Amino acid sequence: MEPWFLWSVFILLNGSAAAISLVAGVVSAFSLSEIEELRRRDAKVAVALERCRGDQGNTLAAFEVLIGAFVGMSALLGGVLIGTRLIQQADDGWSSAGVIAGAITVVSFFMAWLTMMLPRKLGIHFRSVLAPKIIPSLMLVRGAAFILRRLGRLHDSLAPPEDTAFDRADADIGSLDRKSV
Fold first, then answer.
1. What is the Cα–Cα distance from 129 to 137, expressed in whole angstroms?
2. For a designed S-S bond to 22, which of 75, 105, 119, 179 qualifies (C-beta 3.0 to 4.6 A apart)?
3. In this structure, is the dihedral angle defined by the CA atoms of residues 9, 10, 15 and 21, taken in order, positive or negative?
4. Angle separating helix axes 4-29 and 43-54, nearest 10 degrees
């Protein structure tokens, strides 16, 4: 018997991934003309969206990393929770365990659709209505993007420096040319 709070954490993780995916859909769908129109109605919302659009590569990358993190944690926890039942069913017979494994696969695809694809499509479709409501979450995502950029710079600083005078593509073409002769 697994604790009830683990299932609530599982639902919370999936809900967080769905919410981030919804916000990502809203931010990615706004065009510059729509932001200008929104500026006339609500300047604060337009400015927040412009900041995200101006730094769109980093913001959308932060969305994807956060969605991946929540979905990964959710998948791990779901695997642990469901895996214990699968092992118990395997003791009863492999045919029932096979059915459960198939059901887990179907539920995994459904959860991916429910937490990632559907919210993003809804965000794109209802972007004008949702834009004023997502401003606090945009500030959180911009903060997460800032942290992720810092980690990216740290990662880049640990990599060995590239030799800019040496072009690997030209060297590969040259070596292929020498081999053909």
1. 15
2. 119
3. positive
4. 90
φ, ψ for residue 45, nearest 5 deg? -65, -45
Among 151, 14, 118, residue whose Cα is nearest residue 69: 14
Could you give the angle at which helices 4-29 and 56-92 cross, rounded to 10 degrees? 150
Give the pair of three-digit tokens for residue 91: 């003791």
3-state secondary structure string across 5-66: HHHHHHHHHHHHHHHHHHHHHHHHHCCHHHHHHHHHHCHHHHHHHHHHHHCHHHHHHHHHHH
Tens-digit pLDDT profile for the chain (181 aa)? 557 788 888 889 888 888 888 888 888 888 888 888 888 888 888 888 887 776 666 777 778 888 888 888 888 888 888 777 777 767 777 777 677 778 778 888 888 888 888 998 998 889 888 888 888 888 887 787 778 778 877 877 877 776 665 556 655 665 555 666 5
* DSSP category for residue 159: S
* Rounded Cα–Cα distance for residues 87 and 180 (Å): 58
Cβ atoms < 10 Å from Cβ of 144: 17
